[in-house]
């Protein structure tokens, strides 16, 4: 699909400087721009590229003034970065604008679905599933019995959603995500082995939640594992049974959260963080990457390390960690003297 500079300026409420009929059908970085592509300039460090880019259209801030000849048509807006993000969102919505039910696919007779849904080939919709309006389910998705999926949610190819899961409106479930598999529950038995504890709960994902590719969210032993409104989970995250993640919390890749941990609202958790089970992490907490959390954390704390220490304490201690051989040598020399 092609768009002219004039059309894009209309979407962004911007002003065209150059050819209003310039057309684009692709997006590009400014330094890799090519004819027929749309790019943007927001970071001054990339300013020189605007004079050499081959992109047909470039979105810039209204404060930008060219210091040399340009081969690209400009669209001037209040905030170039925000405007380009809006275009990316629009581009994605057009790209994902699929509808209809492809074959082969299976929909149980007891399942129900709303208007304007898309169901990709080789997908399986089990008994008593309820699917809302404008839901997009891409090929090779499995949706288990009694699952509910709210309006405007997208489930990408290959995701597996086990029985009794509840997913709200405007969510994104990326490829390979597994939601509602059994939690890791075993008890030692008299034979010296382990007996499996039945996992009879479910997973509840509220509205406007993103779940990354290959992320797994286990069903609760009893009750629910809950991901609250607006939470964003990166790829390859493990969420254990009965975990609760608060509103608008964001978690980076390869983090593992053990069973029954409670994470508050508006937290920011870096990559490869490990959270032990049954802990409580307060609201507005920031956890630096590769930290190990083995204690409860109060509201507004910033922590780092394994086991995690208050962020400022860790940085002070790190000065000594890296100089430890020299410090030990100096102590030994003093002892000899």
UniProtKB/TrEMBL annotation:
Residues 21-89 form the UDP-3-O-[3-hydroxymyristoyl] glucosamine N-acyltransferase non-repeat region domain. SUPFAM superfamilies: Trimeric LpxA-like enzymes. The active site is at residue 241. GO terms for biological process: lipid A biosynthetic process. The keyword Transmembrane does not apply. GO terms for cellular component: membrane. InterPro entries: Hexapep (IPR001451), LpxD (IPR007691), Trimer_LpxA-like_sf (IPR011004), UDP_GlcNAc_AcTrfase_non-rep (IPR020573). Pfam families: Hexapep (PF00132), LpxD (PF04613). The keyword Transcription regulation does not apply. One of its GO terms (molecular function) is UDP-3-O-[(3R)-3-hydroxyacyl]-glucosamine N-acyltransferase activity. Pathway: Bacterial outer membrane biogenesis; LPS lipid A biosynthesis. Keywords: Acyltransferase, Lipid A biosynthesis, Lipid biosynthesis, Lipid metabolism, Repeat, Transferase. Its EC number is 2.3.1.191. It catalyses: a UDP-3-O-[(3R)-3-hydroxyacyl]-alpha-D-glucosamine + a (3R)-hydroxyacyl-[ACP] = a UDP-2-N,3-O-bis[(3R)-3-hydroxyacyl]-alpha-D-glucosamine + holo-[ACP] + H(+). Homotrimer. Catalyzes the N-acylation of UDP-3-O-acylglucosamine using 3-hydroxyacyl-ACP as the acyl donor. Is involved in the biosynthesis of lipid A, a phosphorylated glycolipid that anchors the lipopolysaccharide to the outer membrane of the cell. Belongs to the transferase hexapeptide repeat family. LpxD subfamily. This is UDP-3-O-acylglucosamine N-acyltransferase. It comes from Siansivirga zeaxanthinifaciens CC-SAMT-1.
């Amino acid at each position: 699909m092609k768009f002219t500079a004039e059309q894009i300026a209309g979407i962004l409420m911007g002003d065209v400087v150059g050819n209003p009929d310039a057309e684009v059908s692709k997006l590009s970085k400014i330094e890799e721009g090519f004819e027929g592509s749309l790019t943007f300039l927001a970071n001054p460090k990339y300013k020189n590229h605007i004079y050499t880019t081959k992109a047909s259209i470039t979105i810039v801030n209204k404060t930008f003034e060219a210091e040399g000849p340009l081969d690209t048509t400009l669209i001037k807006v209040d905030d170039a970065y925000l405007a380009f993000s809006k275009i990316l969102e629009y581009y994605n919505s057009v790209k994902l604008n699929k509808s209809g039910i492809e074959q082969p696919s299976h929909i149980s007779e007891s399942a129900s679905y709303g208007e304007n849904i898309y169901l990709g080939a080789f997908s399986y919709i089990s008994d008593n599933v309820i699917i809302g309006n404008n839901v997009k389910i891409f090929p090779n998705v499995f949706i288990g019995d009694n699952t509910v999926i709210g309006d405007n949610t997208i489930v990408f190819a290959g995701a597996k959603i086990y029985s009794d899961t509840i997913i709200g409106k405007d969510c994104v479930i990326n490829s390979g995500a597994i939601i509602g598999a059994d939690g890791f529950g075993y008890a030692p038995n008299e034979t010296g082995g382990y007996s499996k504890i039945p996992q009879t709960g479910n997973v509840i994902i509220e509205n406007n939640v993103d779940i990354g590719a290959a992320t797994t969210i286990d069903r609760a032993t009893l009750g629910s594992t809950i991901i609250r409104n607006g939470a964003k989970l990166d790829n390859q995250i493990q969420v254990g049974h009965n975990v609760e993640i608060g509103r608008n919390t964001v978690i980076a890749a390869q983090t593992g959260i053990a069973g029954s941990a409670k994470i508050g609202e508006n937290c920011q958790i870096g990559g490869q963080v490990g959270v032990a089970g049954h802990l409580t992490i307060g609201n507005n907490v920031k956890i630096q990457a590769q930290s190990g959390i083995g204690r409860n954390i109060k509201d507004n704390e910033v922590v780092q390390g394994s086991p995690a220490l208050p962020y400022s304490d860790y940085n002070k201690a790190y000065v000594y960690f890296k100089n430890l051989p020299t410090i030990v040598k100096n102590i030994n020399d003093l002892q000899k003297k």
